[in-house]
């Protein structure tokens, strides 16, 4: 049992949801700061040209990581809830954190599916036109 002193799988299971949640939040903040440039007024005209290209390249590259982090959060939080006495988790004050982590990550995965359906037309941009000095996307329906 000396190996358990160096590596305890149960401890890793307990920490996995917070580690994967932290990783997904770090990736989300990175995307937030990257996408923020497209909202700057002086770059609005250019963003109509580059935003679809960005989503085709960069967004798809980060998607597997985000889906993996969220899936690990849901899975490990659920395993923690199912394999540990709820009274013990409640006494330690972690029960509701696991419930919240699993629910929020699962909600994010569901929301992504809904968002993806509405966003798909932007990825199929056919043409651009200038309307009142602002770049406007013309997408196929």
Order of helices and strands: HHHHHEE
User: Helical content, roughly?
Assistant: over 70%
Unreliably modeled segments: 126-141
Structural class: mainly alpha
Distance between the termini: 62 Å
Name the overall outline: elongated
Q: Give the overall average pLDDT.
A: 80
Number of helices: 5
The domain count comes to 1
Major sheet size, sense and barrel closure = 2 strands, antiparallel
Strand order of the largest sheet: 1-2
Protein name: WGS project CABT00000000 data, contig 2.35
Keywords: Membrane, Transmembrane, Transmembrane helix
Transmembrane segments: 61-83, 95-115
How would you portray this structure in words?
It is a single chain. Strands 1-2 form a two-stranded antiparallel ribbon. The protein has one domain (9-32, 42-126). Helix 2 runs antiparallel to helix 3 and helix 3 runs antiparallel to helix 5. The protein has helices spanning 2-6, 9-36, 44-83, 86-92, 95-123; strands at residues 125-131, 134-139. The model is unreliable at 126-141 (pLDDT under 50). With 141 residues, it is mostly helical.
Show the helix and strand layout.
Layout: H1 2-6, H2 9-36, H3 44-83, H4 86-92, H5 95-123, E1 125-131, E2 134-139
Antiparallel strand pairs: 1-2
Short description:
This protein is mostly helical and 141 residues long.
What attributes does this structure have?
141 residues; mainly alpha; two-stranded antiparallel ribbon; 5 helices; 2 strands; 77% helix; elongated; disordered C terminus
């Amino acid at each position: 049992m000396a190996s358990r002193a160096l590596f305890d799988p149960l401890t890793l299971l307990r920490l996995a949801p917070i580690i994967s949640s932290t990783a997904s939040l770090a990736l989300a903040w990175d995307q937030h700061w990257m996408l923020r440039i497209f909202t700057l007024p002086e770059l609005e005209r250019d963003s109509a040209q580059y935003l679809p290209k960005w989503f085709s390249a960069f967004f798809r590259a980060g998607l597997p990581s985000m889906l993996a982090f969220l899936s690990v959060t849901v899975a490990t939080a659920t395993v923690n809830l199912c394999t540990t006495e709820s009274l013990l988790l409640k006494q330690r004050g972690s029960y509701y954190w696991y419930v919240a982590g699993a629910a929020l990550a699962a909600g994010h995965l569901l929301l992504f599916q809904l968002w993806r359906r509405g966003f798909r037309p932007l990825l199929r941009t056919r043409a651009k036109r200038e309307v009142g000095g602002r770049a406007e996307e013309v997408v196929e329906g």
